[in-house]
Design goal:
This protein is an all-alpha fold and about 90 residues long. The protein contains three helices and no strands.
Length: about 90
């Protein structure tokens, strides 16, 4: 039962993170501008590095992306748990 609940929670978190990215971050001017700048920088790096170094650059990009996903997930889960705790505390006061 706990495994199914944990799996369902993880699935919900990932779906919600995707919704937040689409609805909020992609409309956030600073975030969008920074994303575009990072993409341009990465393209420039890929063009400049020798062929034998490109796999290392791609590996770096993949690991950085994975780290960002973990950070988003952890922050969302903590916010979700904080919301549940706050709701319980408010209900206790009533």
């Amino acid at each position: 039962m706990t495994t199914n609940l944990n799996h369902s929670l993880n699935e919900f978190v990932m779906e919600r993170i995707e919704e937040i990215i689409k609805a909020i971050l992609l409309n956030h001017i600073t975030y969008r501008d920074l994303s575009e700048e990072l993409s341009c920088t990465l393209r420039e790096l890929i063009e400049r590095v020798p062929e034998n170094c490109k796999p290392l650059l791609y590996e770096y990009e993949e690991r950085e992306h994975a780290q960002t996903v973990i950070a988003f997930e952890a922050m969302y889960k903590q916010g979700f748990m904080d919301g549940i705790f706050l709701n319980k505390e408010i209900l206790k006061g009533n």
